[in-house]
Specification:
It is a single chain. The protein has helices at about 15-35, 45-55, 60-65, 85-95, 160-175, 190-205, 220-230, 240-255, 295-305, 310-325, 335-344, and strands at about 5-10, 35-40, 70-75, 100-110, 125-130, 135-145, 150-155, 180-185, 215-220, 235-240, 260-265, 275. By secondary structure, it is α/β, with parallel strands linked by helices. The chain has 2 domains: about 1-100 and about 260-344, Isopropylmalate Dehydrogenase, CATH 3.40.718.10; about 115-130 and about 155-255, Response regulator (Rossmann fold, 3-Layer(aba) Sandwich). Strands 2-1-3-12-11-4-5-10-8-9 form a 10-stranded mixed sheet, with helices on both faces. A hairpin with a 7-residue loop joins β6 (about 135-145) and β7. The longest helix has 19 residues, at about 15-35. The chain binds 3-isopropylmalic acid (IPM) and manganese (II) ion.
Length: about 350
């Protein structure tokens, strides 16, 4: 029997638990088939837990989650909780504390899926979004709140080491996946300080990879090309906020956020990485058995790969691809999960 790997499961808010259940269904099937042993532990976190306890994520719970090999997350955010409380207190807390500096978001248009774009070119690229710095750092503050003199600053933190490690990861990923080009996206024509740091670091790191092509776009141009000519992109590396926005576009052009998966990866094995669908909690359809669990199941495949089970991951991806190719409308969350599980 293989070594036991521990997975912390956080269904979270809204449709999070609905889609996570389907992910676990698929995990069960693929684990049995490959003789893999996972110990899953559910953590009851999110809006309901916050209302009940007044706490978002206790330090003791964090310490327990830290002992897992990976985190499988559904969704975070609920209209009954002030905006930002759960996002910062739960999602960003884990991304930051576990140093998940790579937010990997594949953009792949599967056969059978309709893109809103007119182009018939294949869409298949990887976005490496920085996950621990930039405008997400929380640096900044307010003065004279609610007065006419109110001041608000939101400071983007960019460290040489933080920028360098994520750029290097993008190049290494490009090599490992047999891809050809890394494109950096920033806005160095107006963000003079962080832009210069990113650009200089990119130019230095790229010299270590003479066989990889490189490119640079300002984020506004990149947003346009994601829509008009996505075939330009192979591996994209960018700042946390630019990457957040661009990956909603890349999701939209590849069939919508119902299909977009992601990994918050800490390459340092001492921390658990966290795998989650890109979509939010969609509270209006929670518990109705209509949310698409595909993004979560694709995120599960990323988790399996990260945990060293490339073959099992490939089988989950293949099952999803097969399901998408023959998809009929009107299927429920559990229908889709069961169909994909049955294909494995
Ligand atoms: C995402 C989400 C989060 C982010 C929110 C919920 C904080 O939009 O994962 O893309 O901005 O990173
Ligand atoms: Mn987002």
């Amino acid at each position: 029997m293989s070594k036991v790997q521990k997975i912390a499961v956080v269904g979270g808010d809204g449709i999070g638990p609905d889609v996570i259940n389907e992910g676990l269904k698929v995990l069960d099937v693929v684990a049995k088939k490959h003789g893999l042993t996972f110990e899953t532990k559910k953590f009851d976190l999110g809006a309901a837990h916050f209302h009940k306890t007044g706490e978002v994520l206790h330090d003791a719970t964090m310490a327990e989650i830290a002992k897992h090999d990976a985190i499988f997350l559904g969704a975070v955010g609920d209209p009954t909780v002030q905006s930002g409380v759960l996002e910062r207190g739960l999602l960003l807390k884990m991304r930051f504390a576990f140093d998940q500096y790579v937010n990997l978001r594949p953009a792949k248009l599967h056969p059978g899926v309709t893109s809103p774009l007119a182009t018939k070119d294949p869409i298949d690229f990887l976005v490496v979004r920085e996950g621990t710095e930039g405008p997400y750092s929380g640096a900044g503050g307010s003065l004279a709140v609610t007065t006419p003199r109110e001041v608000a600053t939101e400071v983007s933190i960019n460290t040489r080491s933080g920028v360098e490690r994520v750029i290097r990861y993008a190049f290494e990923l490009c090599v490992a996946r047999g891809r050809k080009k890394v494109t950096m996206v920033h806005k160095d024509n107006i963000m003079l300080h962080s832009g210069a740091l990113w650009k200089r670091t990119f130019d230095e790191v790229k010299r270590e990879y003479p066989n990889i092509k490189t490119d640079y776009f300002h984020v506004d141009a990149a947003a346009m090309f994601f829509v008009t000519d996505p075939a330009r992109f192979d591996v994209v590396v960018t700042d946390n906020l630019f990457g957040d926005i661009l990956t909603d576009i890349s999701a939209a052009i590849t069939g919508g956020i119902g299909l977009a998966c992601s990994g918050n990866i800490s390459p340092d094995p001492k921390f658990p990485s966290m795998f989650e669908p890109v979509h939010g909690s969609a509270p209006d359809i929670a518990g109705k058995n209509i949310a698409d669990p595909t993004a979560t199941i694709l995120s599960l495949a990323m988790m399996l790969e990260h945990l060293g089970h490339a073959q099992a991951a490939a089988e989950v991806n293949a099952a999803v691809a097969k399901d998408l190719a023959t998809r009929t409308s009107g299927r429920s969350t559990t229908d889709i999960g069961s169909a994909i599980a049955a294909l494995i």
